[in-house]
Amino acid sequence: MSLSPFTQNVIKIIKNIPAGKVLTYGIIAIIAGNPRGARQVSWVLNSLSSKHQLPWHRVINSKGKISLGDFTGYTEQKELLEQEGILFGLQDKIDLNKFLWQIKSIDEI
DNA sequence: CACATGACGAGGG
DNA sequence: ACCCTCGCCATGT
Which residues make beta-bridge pairs with A59? Predict the structure, then answer.
């Protein structure tokens, strides 16, 4: 199995998100080279996070919320993020203006 | 080649 | 703010 360059970039980006910061599926897709590849990002997390030791919990959706369901890891992800100092506001929403990792290009990695 | 999958996102009601 | 629809994409079967 070989992964597309885009998917490889996604892995590289996620692996470099610093503790205490988060990134959204959409932004990762953009930085990785495909503005419309957000769904592929979720696929990577779901199937390759353990194999590549990815900090999967640092990826949330564009609304600043956790995308996992109550029975698929929601609580675990929230705890991991809180342990890194990330705060949850009303509606369990994270303030992106404060916790979003400011990266503009994959070259910064 | 056809069809299903997955932790998405923008838009509208 | 919530819910649904629709478009999108790399993979897997």
Answer: A23
Strand partners, A8: none
Residue A83 has, within 13 A of its CA and on its CB side, a CA count of: 8
pLDDT at residue A1 greater than cutoff 80:
no
Q: How many Å apart are CA A61 and CA A77, to the nearest integer?
A: 13
State if pTM tops 0.85: yes
Measured distance CA(A79)–CA(A74) in Å, rounded: 9
Strand B: positions under 7 A of a protein C-beta atom: 5-10
Show the tokens assigned to A69: 């369901």
Token pair of A109 as six digits: 């990695």
Residues 6+ apart with CB under 8 A from A50: none
CA of A37 to C1' of C5 (A): 19
Range A26-30, long-range pairs (CB < 8 A, 24+ positions): A26/A62, A27/A100, A28/A59
Residue A35 has pLDDT above 80, yes or no: yes
